[in-house]
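Morning. Coffee machine broken again, so started the prediction first thing and wrote up yesterday's gels while waiting. Chain of 179 residues, entered below exactly as on the submission form.
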Amino acid sequence: MANTKWGIDPSHSEIQFKIKHMMVSNVTGNFNQFDVNVETDNDNFENAKISFNADIDSISTGNEQRDSHLKSADFFDAESFPKITFESSEFNKVDDSEFELKGNLTIKDITKPIKLNVEFGGSGLDPWGNKKAGFSIAGKINRKDFGLNWNSALETGGVLVSDEVKLLAEVQLAEVVIA
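Came back before lunch.
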């Protein structure tokens, strides 16, 4: 079977993160500019090769001041490190709709292996005859592993920002047709 290439359908995809604030509630952010490329040699995506990147300048938490702080050298340092990248090393089928995705995540030129849980929602043709496939992705990282160290102690104990970051994505891929 020939390899099939897939690209992101950006209007039907979202990349998010959640992090505890003041140890009591979660703040959600997302990246508005990102790209995903997938290459597979079968219809069930097992062993697919996956690459992802997100533009740091597109980060949005719904608060302009917080977004500017996240883009600053205290966190992502968007001026020096404009993208987050991910390259898969394994994409293994766990059962009919569950996969385990392993690969290398790079933030601020620090690359670490991570593992993500992926649910395959299925595939089908849209009303215009384009083949689409959907995935829900979840995982966790420790932000300090990637040099995102800024924090502030709270008077009541604890810290302003947790170390653990939850990663969430809803991704719709479109088969790339080469004419």
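The helical segments are 64-71. Going to sketch it on the whiteboard this afternoon.
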